[in-house]
Amino acid sequence: MTRIDDPEQVRARLEETGYLVDEGLAVTCFLALKLHRPLFCEGDAGVGKTALATALAGALGAPLIRLQCHEGIDASQALYDWDFPRQLLHLRAAEAAGVQDAERLESELYDQRFLVARPLLQALRTQPSVLLVDEIDRADDEFEAFLLELLSEYSVTIPEIGTLRAEEPPVVVLTSNRTREVHDALKRRCLYHWFDHPSFARELAIVRTRLPQVSARLAEQVTALVQALRGADLVKPPGVAETIDWAEALAALGATEVDADLAVATLGSVLKYREDTDRARGLDLAAVLSARGT
Q: At what angle do helices 216-230 and 240-252 cross, to 10 degrees?
């Protein structure tokens, strides 16, 4: 894994991947690497939490292993499972060959070659690696407790095999959209960073970095429109990801700048609720664009 010696180097490495960070996030990332502590990223959807894990993997030269959380997720989906079809085939082959030793058969059935490694186990066995536990707030309390135990020791005990421990702890990034409060026990063991919506200048810089093919005028206009939409009391305010999507969609239409009519026609690229599109159509988007010198 690429060695990083200070927060400024973290910032520079992340920016090389196209991910822009401020001083606070650069320091937090450096401490997570230095202290082998999980990084807990919380904030609205689309503000760059998941993208940070991807950028860290690129900056460190390590594979990204992603666990997407959902309601009802359990250890067999997140940690490991057994390949039952292959075990059954092996058992039938052994029986056909006349193998009668039950103890031998059992030990062969629960060998690592039949072990299906899910993301958590993959991260423990892969050195180096970046483990993204995405949207931990969608999982239930039991899974959160299970994850807490695993991350405290970076090891897991498989009854049929024994304890498997990471030789080098993975870099762990947990994200939450705050659909529910994650327990303090998990947060206490992590370094915490709140992701807010960026300022106009930073968001414009992100768009220009991610979409260098988009004209400077269009990038500025789209950023201004999104900033205005966030102040409109929407059901789901757009994140930076939607700003990038909108600018990319307009560029795909051949636009180098945008007017109010074109903005309304392409609202589906940035807003995903009917109530929000209705509210956006009621805004004076022409005035927003006029304020940007159009």
A: 140
